[in-house]
Specification:
Helices cover 54% and strands 6% of the residues. It has 578 residues and is of the alpha/beta class.
C-alpha cells in the first residue's frame, strides 16, 4: 500500500498522526466522494448567507470605490495618476474586465468578491486536507466565518491578493505532488498577488522562501520565472502612470501619509470601541444566547489572538520540520505559517476587526492543523478524540471569545437570506443600486439622486465630499457609481485624512472645477483617537462659499440635512434646478 495516497475506510488520509520516529514523505491524498461531501458542506455554508450578502449594506467608501475605480479604468483613467489608489492596479484591471464582460453593477462586483473569498476559504481547505477531511472542513468553516462578516462581499484587493498568495505557497509546498510546472504556476500566482497588493511582498518572501527551504538555483529559477511573468504588468502601470505618481500612490501615501489619520490605539481599548465604523455597526446587532465578552473586549482579545495564533502555527511548523524532517506536511505547515507571519503588519497597522479578519482567515483557521502536529504519537490516526482535541480550541475562540464579529454576524446574514431582519436600504438610479445602512440616509439619498439625475447632463463633472472639507475621514464614493455619465471632478474618490484635506492636495482647485457638488453630513460626527480630528485646509470650503449655491437639501439629521446638492452660482437654472 502506498501510504502517501491510499485512503482508510474511516475516510481520512493515512499518515495522520504518524509517530515522530518515523520519517515520512507522506501527506498526499486522492480526491474521493467523501472529499466531495466535505467540500459540499463548505459550499453550503457559503451559500446559506449569500442572498443576504448580495443585498446587505455596503461600506459606502470601500465598496463605493471598488465600483467607481474600475468604472474609471474603463473610461481610460490611470490609477495613481488620475485618481488616488493606495494599492496595486491588478484588482482594478481584473474587475474592470469583469465589468466589461458582465456589466458594471453591484451584483457583478459582489459575485467577484465572493470568488475572492472562496479562493481563501478553499485554499485553507486544501492545506488542511493533508491532515484529514474532517479537519479540513472545520478549518474552512472557521476561515469562512472570519473573513466574510467584516465587510461582506466587497471585492477588496487584499482578499484577492491573499487568495492568490495562499495558493502560490500551497502549490510550491504541496506534499505528495510533483511536476515541473508547479513552481512556475506558484511564482505566477505570487506575481499576480503583488499586482493586487504590493505590500504582500514580505509575506510572500517568507512563505515561498520556507517552501523552497535551502534553495538551489534549480528550485528557485522556475519560481522566479513565474514571479517575473506575473508581476511584469506592474512595469506597464508604472510607465502609464509615471514613476513619480506610481511611487507616491503605492508607497508614499499609504505608508507615510495615511497612517496618522487611520491608526488606532495599540492595544485596543478594553472598555470602548475605538473605530468609528465599528461604533456605527454596533448600533444594530442581534442577540447572542451564550456568555461572551463585550464587543470592545472581543476586539481587544482578537488583537492578541492574531499574533498568538500566527506565531503558534509558524512555530509548530518549524518544530515539526525539525522533529520530522522527512514529513512533507510539516514543510507545508511551516510555509503557510511563514506566510501568516508576513501578513501580521496588516493587522497591526489599524487594529480593528476588519484588519484582524484579513489576517486571521488563514493562520487562525489552521490552528487545528498545528495542534494536530503536537498530539502524542500514540493517539489513533483517525478518531473522534483526535478530531475534538484539534478543533476545539478554534471553535471555542469563534463561539466564545469573538462571536460578535464571526458567528453572530454569520447567523444574522443567514437569517437575512430567509427574510429575517433584512438590513440594507437601496439607493437607486437608472438600474444601478447601492445598499445603505441607514433608512433615513437612504431615503434622503434617493431624493438627491432623483434631482441630480433630472438636472445634470452627461459629461458634466461631480465631486462628492463632506460638508466641511477641513475633515475628510470618509466618503460616500458610491454616488460616482450611480452616475456613470458624470465625470469625477477629483482624484480623491476615496477620501482619507491627511491626504485629501492636505494643504498641498489641490482639492480646492478640483472643487472649483466641479459642475455639481454632493456634500454629506453622514460622517460629520466622525471621532477616532488619531489625526483624523485635526483640521486640514479650509481652502475648499472657501471655494464653496464664494462660487457655489445650494440647490437641494435632503433629509433631516438632528437639524441638518443628510446630503446637500450644490451648483456653481453662475450656472443656476441651466437645466431647471431651483
Amino acid at each position: 500500500m502506498n501510504t502517501t495516497t491510499e485512503l482508510t475506510l474511516a475516510g481520512d488520509s493515512v499518515g495522520e498522526g504518524l509517530p515522530d520516529r518515523q520519517p515520512t514523505t507522506g501527506g498526499g491524498w486522492r480526491f474521493g466522494w467523501l472529499d466531495a461531501i466535505s467540500l459540499g458542506l463548505v459550499i453550503l455554508a457559503l451559500a446559506v448567507p449569500l442572498r443576504g450578502l448580495l443585498r446587505y449594506q455596503g461600506p459606502p467608501m470601500e465598496e463605493g470605490f471598488m465600483l467607481a475605480f474600475p468604472q474609471e479604468v474603463l473610461r481610460g483613467s490611470i490609477p495613481n495618476r488620475d485618481f488616488l489608489h493606495l494599492y496595486g492596479p491588478g484588482s482594478l484591471w481584473v474587475l474592470a474586465g469583469v465589468f466589461k464582460v458582465f456589466g458594471t453593477s453591484l451584483a457583478t462586483e459582489r459575485w467577484f468578491g465572493l470568488l475572492q473569498h472562496a479562493g481563501i476559504i478553499f485554499g485553507v481547505w486544501a492545506v488542511a486536507r493533508h491532515w484529514g477531511r474532517r479537519t479540513a472542513t472545520v478549518c474552512a468553516l472557521v476561515s469562512l466565518v472570519v473573513v466574510v462578516p467584516p465587510i461582506g462581499l466587497t471585492a477588496l484587493a487584499w482578499n484577492g491578493a491573499v487568495a492568490l498568495a495562499l495558493w502560490s505557497v500551497y502549490l510550491l509546498a504541496q506534499p505528495g505532488r510533483g511536476g515541473s510546472k508547479r513552481p512556475i504556476v506558484a511564482g505566477l500566482l505570487a506575481g499576480l498577488a503583488l499586482l493586487f497588493r504590493p505590500d504582500l511582498v514580505l509575506a510572500l518572501s517568507l512563505g515561498l522562501g520556507a517552501a523552497v527551504w535551502r534553495p538551489t538555483m534549480d528550485r528557485v529559477r522556475p519560481v522566479l520565472t513565474g514571479l517575473v511573468a506575473g508581476a511584469s504588468p506592474m512595469l506597464v502601470h508604472i510607465v502609464m502612470a509615471g514613476p513619480e505618481a506610481a511611487f507616491k500612490g503605492m508607497f508614499v501615501e499609504p505608508v507615510f501619509r495615511l497612517r496618522p489619520g487611520r491608526s488606532l490605539p495599540v492595544p485596543p481599548s478594553w472598555t470602548e470601541l475605538d473605530g468609528f465604523l465599528q461604533k456605527a455597526a454596533g448600533l444594530r446587532t442581534i442577540g447572542w444566547p451564550f456568555p461572551a465578552p463585550t464587543s470592545a473586549q472581543q476586539v481587544a482579545l482578537w488583537f492578541f489572538l492574531v499574533p498568538v495564533s500566527t506565531v503558534f502555527v509558524a512555530a509548530v511548523g518549524i518544530w515539526s520540520c525539525r522533529r520530522r524532517p522527512g514529513d512533507q506536511r510539516s514543510h507545508l505547515l511551516r510555509a503557510v505559517g511563514f506566510l501568516g507571519l508576513g501578513m501580521l503588519t496588516q493587522a497591526m497597522q489599524r487594529p480593528d476587526t476588519a484588519h484582524f479578519a484579513w489576517v486571521s482567515c488563514v493562520p487562525l483557521a489552521l490552528v487545528p492543523v498545528a495542534v494536530h502536529q503536537l498530539l502524542p504519537a500514540g493517539w489513533p490516526a483517525v478518531s473522534w478524540r483526535r478530531f475534538v482535541a484539534t478543533t476545539a480550541p478554534v471553535v471555542i475562540v469563534v463561539f466564545a471569545a469573538i462571536p460578535h464579529y464571526t458567528v453572530r454576524t454569520y447567523v444574522d446574514l443567514a437569517g437575512q437570506s430567509l427574510g429575517r431582519n433584512v438590513f440594507g436600504f437601496p439607493v437607486n438610479h437608472e438600474g444601478r443600486n447601492f445598499y445603505y445602512g441607514s433608512p433615513d440616509a437612504a431615503a434622503a439619498a434617493n431624493e438627491l439622486v432623483r434631482d441630480l439625475g433630472e438636472w445634470s447632463q452627461p459629461g458634466e463633472s461631480l465631486l462628492v465630499g463632506p460638508v466641511d472639507f477641513r475633515f475628510t475621514p470618509y466618503s460616500d464614493a458610491f454616488f460616482y457609481f450611480l452616475f456613470p455619465d458624470l465625470v469625477p471632478a477629483t482624484r480623491y474618490i476615496e477620501m482619507d485624512p491627511g491626504i485629501a484635506n492636505g494643504h498641498d492636495s489641490g482639492l480646492a482647485d478640483e472643487v472649483r472645477s466641479a459642475d455639481w457638488l454632493i456634500l454629506s453630513n453622514v460622517w460629520t460626527n466622525w471621532a477616532e483617537p488619531n489625526a483624523s480630528l485635526e483640521p486640514g485646509s479650509d481652502a475648499p470650503n472657501q471655494v464653496v462659499k464664494d462660487h457655489f449655491c445650494r440647490v437641494g437639501a435632503y433629509g433631516d439629521r438632528d437639524g441638518r440635512p443628510w446630503f446637500e446638492l450644490y451648483r456653481p452660482c453662475d450656472r443656476i437654472g441651466d437645466h431647471g434646478e431651483g
